[in-house]
Automatic annotation (TrEMBL):
Xref: Pfam families: AAA_31
Major enzyme class: transferase
Domain AAA: 101-240
Annotated source species: hydrothermal vent metagenome
Keyword Nucleotide-binding: yes
Lineage: unclassified sequences, metagenomes, ecological metagenomes
SUPFAM superfamilies, A to Z: P-loop containing nucleoside triphosphate hydrolases (SSF52540)
Family classification: Belongs to the CpsD/CapB family.
A single Gene Ontology CC term: plasma membrane
E.C. number(s) listed in UniProt: 2.7.10.2
Keywords associated with the record: ATP-binding, Kinase, Nucleotide-binding, Transferase, Tyrosine-protein kinase
Identification of the protein by name: non-specific protein-tyrosine kinase
GO MF, one annotated term: ATP binding
PANTHER family tied to this protein: FERRIC ENTEROBACTIN TRANSPORT PROTEIN FEPE, TYROSINE-PROTEIN KINASE
Length: 285
């Protein structure tokens, strides 16, 4: 049984006859303006409001107020880290470049990209760089209050260097590249030679980092398929009780089957009936 069949079976098992309630996460953060002194220098860092982060469902608070990670994301990240840094990593080209996508909009890919990034940064000694490559929607940039900051598009058009647009945060080992200035050929930039060169640079320059791309839905723009060809690994987010099986299959057909492809069944219901993101039927397709 394929991972899609397993996920769809799980979807049917969870289904109660009604469509799961849509949840839209919100993060309130300060703008990237505040100067925060650290032990090295006065570095400008993005302050992330932990309480808002937790209330948005983007992480879980431990008793001491620290951030911990839901078990679902522990399960998701293990094979990703193994493909990037484990014994089989030599077989996965650009294994530290991970694309998080969906078939269609609204399935929760941005939520999963953020939570996956934070789960790795919080629990492991790996720096995570989250890249907002969904240029039409820019949800990652908007959620973190970075919609006005220079970012990916500015690098692709030659206005900024890569290091100029990496936003450090006060969450250790978690960094962000915003979408950048809106550009009338934004989606086309994602399929350009400059994007290929940028991903090649990221993969080689930051071999010890996980770089996670929040990308456009596969069935909406052809550029998403190009990005999938550049990434070493792909995580496909599927919304429970909403995404049609043939849409998932069409999306998977657009991907390179020789690469590790993981599927996350998202927005399932707990036994108590409450909805939450991240419950997963995850594995190689």
């Amino acid at each position: 049984m394929s991972i899609i069949d397993k996920a769809m079976k799980k979807l049917q098992d969870n289904k109660s006859g009604s469509v799961a309630k849509r949840i839209t996460p919100k993060i309130r953060t300060t703008k990237y303006k505040e100067k925060i002194a650290n032990s090295y220098n006065n570095e400008c860092k993005l302050h992330i409001d932990r309480k808002q982060l937790i209330s948005a469902g983007l992480s879980i608070s431990a008793a001491d107020g620290s951030l911990t990670v839901d078990n679902a994301f522990r399960r998701i990240k293990r094979p990703i880290l193994a493909n990037a840094f484990g014994k089989e990593s030599a077989l996965v080209e650009n294994g530290n470049i991970v694309m998080v996508c969906s078939s269609l909009p609204g399935e929760g890919k941005t939520f999963n990209a953020i939570n996956l990034s934070m789960s790795i940064a919080i629990e492991l000694d790996k720096t995570v760089l989250l890249v907002d490559a969904d240029l039409p929607r820019r949800n990652t940039s908007n959620l973190f209050g970075l919609e006005e900051e220079a970012g990916l598009t500015n690098v692709l058009v030659g206005e900024k260097n890569l290091t100029d647009v990496i936003v450090s945060t006060d969450l250790q080992d978690f960094k962000i590249i915003p979408a950048g200035t809106k550009h009338h050929h934004g989606t086309e930039l994602l399929a350009s030679d400059k994007m290929f060169n940028l991903i090649t640079e990221l993969a080689s320059r930051y071999k010890d980092r996980i770089i996670i791309f929040d990308t456009p839905p596969l069935l909406i723009t052809s550029e998403a398929q190009v990005l999938a060809g550049l990434a070493g690994q792909v995580v496909l987010v599927v919304e429970a009780d909403r995404t049609l099986k043939h849409d998932v299959e069409d999306a998977v057909e657009m991907l390179d089957s020789s690469k590790p492809i993981g599927l996350v069944l998202n927005k399932t219901q707990t036994n108590s009936g409450s909805d939450y993101y991240g419950d997963s039927a995850y594995g190689a397709y």
